[in-house]
Amino acid sequence: MSRNISHKGTKEDTKALRFLGGSVSSLAPLCETVLLLLILMVVGASAQKKSVPVDANKFVLIINGPGGEAAYAQQFEEWTGQLRSALTEKFGFDGKNIRTLSEKGNPRATADEVKKTFVELKSQLDANNVLFVFLIGHGSFDGKEAKFNLVGPDLPASEYNAMLSALPTRRVVVFNMASASGEFIKSLAAKGRIVITATRNGQETNATRFAGFFISALNAADADTDQDGHISVLEAFVYANRLTEDFYKRAGRLATEHALLDDNGDGVGHDKIEAGEGLLARATYLDSLSVDEAAATAATGRLMKERTRLEGEIEQLIARKANMQEAEYEATLERLFIELAKVNRSIKQAGT
């Protein structure tokens, strides 16, 4: 196994009332009025706050590997909890569809449990589901094989690829946020698969911070850069990448991690949209909702179906790029993205 490694009491309330002037008893009517206004404000805010529709179409596997040291173990646990909270509370992931393997949890993050979980997913997923896989921990690369550290024997990237390839779903998003994770791109690259790594190669073996900044991106109000009301995988990646770069610059330190993204299946990662990268990630949303469960009205349902159709056309277009004239490809792609942006704005205005 490779290793690189609080509510104040009535006294304060009384003081506050006296500060406003007069005795406590003389301020009783005022207190009642203020209390009533506060209640109305809370009720009003609650009424305005919309609950996030649960999307049973999305599945998640979080593997929280061993920390090696107490500080890392604690950090990985915190990131895992924060990630799960963001996915369920903000993006509508069904908690029942989130599986977590960890160093000391049940089930534990062992090779056997990883394999068992993928077998379960194979029987549960269908072609229309979306699977998100998050690897939080340490990784290693011996010059030949890249691995993600588990409790006990580790699994190489090639084995993760085999398990992912056996799944029926057409869309898989993998976030390997461990050290030395960059080598996973070569092994996991495939059509319909988005692979994001915290490092650009297997030589960046220091503990990474990308996972923390990715979670910040999920919770940031300004991560939705195109202002369409939804956060795409690409937007979250770009935002987290920028925060990571800023961290090292502010600290005056040489950056020891450089996140990459591959979503065109060529096995070559990039840190920005270029060479055909980023298009599938741009059309894949963390908060994309299934038609059956998220469409509150018939009009919204039609919009949801139209978005699904456009996402599918974009994916098919990317796959046909090699057989098309460059001008035709770029013009068609631009048209589809414009249509997709309009549909997303309409969905946002409808209150989804």
Task: Tell me briefly what this model is.
The protein has 352 residues and is of the alpha/beta class. It has twelve helices and nine strands.
Describe the structure.
The strands form two sheets. A six-stranded mixed β-sheet has the order 2-1-3-7-8-9, with helices on both faces. The longest helix has 24 residues, at about 325-350. The chain has helices at about 10-20, 30-50, 70-90, 110-125, 155-165, 185-190, 210-220, 235-250, 280, 290-295, 300-320, 325-350; strands spanning about 60-65, 100, 130-135, 140, 145-150, 155, 170-175, 195, 260. The protein contains twelve helices and nine strands. With about 350 residues, the protein is α/β, with parallel strands linked by helices. The protein has two domains: about 60-280, Rossmann fold, CATH 3.40.50.1460; about 290-350. Residues about 5-50 and about 290-295 have low confidence and may be disordered.
Keywords:
352 residues, alpha/beta, Rossmann fold, 2 domains, 3-stranded antiparallel beta sheet, 9 strands, 46% helix, 11% strand
Tell the overall outline. globular
Mean pLDDT: 84
CATH architecture type of the largest domain: 3-Layer(aba) Sandwich
Number of strands: 9
Which CATH C-level class of the largest domain is it? Alpha Beta
Nearest-angstrom radius of gyration? 24 Å
Strand order of the largest sheet: 2-1-3-7-8-9
The major pleated sheet works out as: 6 strands, mixed
Instruction: Give the low-pLDDT segments.
Output: 4-49, 289-297
Number of helices: 12
Q: How many domain regions?
A: 2
Q: Helical content, roughly?
A: 40-55%
Examine the coordinates and then state which fold CATH places here, giving the name of the CATH topology of the largest domain.
Rossmann fold
Head-to-tail CA distance between termini: 46 Å
Structural class: alpha/beta
